[in-house]
Amino acid sequence: MAGGITDTGELYSPYVGLVYMFNLIVGTGALTMPKAFATAGWLVSLVLLMFLGFMSYMTTTFVVEAMAAANAQLRWKRMEKRKEDDEDEDSSSGVSDTDVLLQDGYERAETRPILSVQRRGSPNIFEITERVEMGQMASMFFNKVGVNLFYFCIIIYLYGDLAIYAAAVPVSLMQVTCATGNHSCSVGDGTKYNDTDKCWGPIRRIDAYRLYLAAFTLLLGPFTFFNVQKTKYLQIMTSLMRWIAFILMIILALIRISRGQAEGHPSMAQLSGIRNLFGVCVYSFMCQHSLPSLITPISKKKHVNKLVLLDYILILAFYSLLSFTAIYCFRNDTLMDMYTLNFTNCEIINVAFIRYFLGLFPVFTISTNFPIIAVTLRNNWKTLFHREGGTYPWVVDRIVFPAITLVPPVLVAFCTHDLESLVGITGAYAGNGIQYLIPAFLAYCSRKDTQLVFGSGTVNKHLSPFRHTFWIVFVLIWGFSCFVFVTANIVLSDSKL
Asked: Does the pTM of the predicted model rise above 0.85?
């Protein structure tokens, strides 16, 4: 995630990139969106979803622009390095006065703009050919405080991600296996269960949840202590399962609505639900942190911003279809945090295999992602505390960093399994920083840096359509306002309890 310069990888066409980006964005957050829609009201939800989709698209173009600026700077530094090496070879006779003049000239070259001959000679200097991760861009364009704040934000977001994953799997297993009556048929029938209700014999539902959480931690936690890479075939398998599940849920809801069995009567607006809806929407549009590995391998990037816009329109349509079919098919009080669990009721679908497939779908897909996110978080901790030329003791490297990665999210999942709140808080705070504040600061700082190094006449070929400074200021004001709004909402909600 937040790392340095990495290999570009195998190139693919713009339309393959469109599919990859769609798959990246549409994930766990989409499963919590129907409940958030029902809580906030359909009109408020639709308006907020469209606005946040627009804001996410804008900041995506900011990140693409910063990637191009970073590529240009890397090329410029290599050109200067080659020039310096050539001058060192030519002046190998070792005349001291000449050395002084060369050094003085080089220092001036570091602060002056590139001459027009370099601009004409390198028309593709802003071409995105090297994968520069967000951590490297932060190091290039931010000061030390900015870099530390960037890593802090990424780390908090990843902790939230892991807590959501650690809770989602045990919740799904508990809901499917702790049903009364006909096995799993009563999970989605609207019956409300308490954590203290019996699951099997003397075992309560909360006990079953924590047993599943312990098993989940014991099975997947050890991967945090090693290096893990997602294989191509694993990506294909999880993507296929995800799309089968989403399409099945939409079709089943539409069939139920068409037969006149719809139970939902959603309200137009409920302001009390906006806080969670905001966090869920931000989380569900999250892709900025993975853009370098997604955009760089695209073979033709001339119309990359239009491609991204098309992706956002498709994702917006998909989220709307999923959520509207859900809120009209099911009553508000029966919609579950994990939408897949609404389809484990025999009245909705009487095919046992499909019920179990949808009920356990999060278990399969999330379990494959948990070790990868955990290793990413562990590596970000190492990067944050790394000092030039230093190495970590074996105990710190192999035990301490994996432990501080794994223990906090498991503790959070142990204390709560309220997925809607976990997704909402993660999106509203860390997600807000990654999706709005960091891209806006990257765009602003990269533009200043580009003007300083290349001159004010140089135009970044991947400059965002929202090039006016007004848009950066607008995003920053929006991001900070969201922090204040969400915090105030939480404080006021708690004070009423």
From this structure: no
